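Let us work through a complete example step by step.
Step 1: write down the sequence.
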Amino acid sequence: MAFWFCLTHMAVEGEEGCAHAERLGPYPDEASAQAALSRAHARSEAWDHDPRWNDAADLED
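Step 2: predict the structure and record it as tokens.
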């Protein structure tokens, strides 16, 4: 069984749920799916501050 985090309903869903374009996953368990949004936010923050992925220098040219 797989689980997804639905971005429309802000809730964990099983196999039957919203369209895949509207959810994060799949995850192996409900707890992982529930933590998906905070994990995605943390990864985005890390990438925003990673000098290997900093596009600010490219915008100055």
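Step 3: interpret the result. The chain has one domain: 3-60.
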